[in-house]
Amino acid sequence: MNPAARLAADAMNAVGVGRTLDMPSEKEPQMNTETQIKETVTANDVVLFMKGTKSMPQCGFSSRVAGVLNFMGVEFADVNVLADEAMRQGIKDYSDWPTVPQLYVKGEFVGGCDIITEMTLSGELDQLFEQNGVAYDKDAADKIREANA
């Protein structure tokens, strides 16, 4: 490369010409989604990111987890990921977990449908709620275990 061309290339690299840059408008929605998720899981003791709502789940897995929480009398915030594609992908990125539903207790990711089902049947979910001061109906939890014994 001749000296003039090298000088021009160096000048363009110095100011970022020819490089792909993250534009604020491209980054901002993801950052807003991540911030929104973080605020939601820290502002609520129990949060379920799900397809649909706790009163009208839109998939069987979400229905199962919401049903367990509702039956046990747990107060929880529900976030319908079907209403917002950025949230649907954002929660998967946030937790590094590929599926929905996702349950959070006191800001910590607990798991999806299979994990919550196992924890409910083993009594581990009761222990988690007790350790974190989350109110739930112990008799209802016992009834779930009795019905699935």
Structure report:
There is one protein chain. The protein has 149 residues and is an alpha+beta fold. The chain has one domain (23-147): Glutaredoxin (3-Layer(aba) Sandwich). Helix content is 56%, strand content 11%. The protein is built from seven helices and four strands, in the order ααβαβαββααα. It has helices spanning 3-15, 24-43, 60-71, 85-95, 113-122, 124-131, 138-147, and strands at 46-50, 77-80, 102-105, 108-111. It has a four-stranded mixed sheet with strand order 2-1-3-4, with helices on both faces. Helix 3 runs parallel beside helix 5. It is globular, with a radius of gyration of 23 Å. Residues 2-27 have low confidence and may be disordered.
List keywords for this structure.
alpha+beta, disordered N terminus, Glutaredoxin, 4 strands
CA-to-CA gap between the ends? 77 Å
In CATH terms, the superfamily is Glutaredoxin
Task: Name the beta content range.
Answer: 5-15%
**Helix content estimate:** 55-70%
Total number of distinct structural domains: 1
Low-confidence spans: 2-27
How many E strands? 4
CATH topology value? Glutaredoxin
CATH class designation? Alpha Beta
Order of helices and strands: HHEHEHEEHHH
Rg, Å, rounded = 23 Å
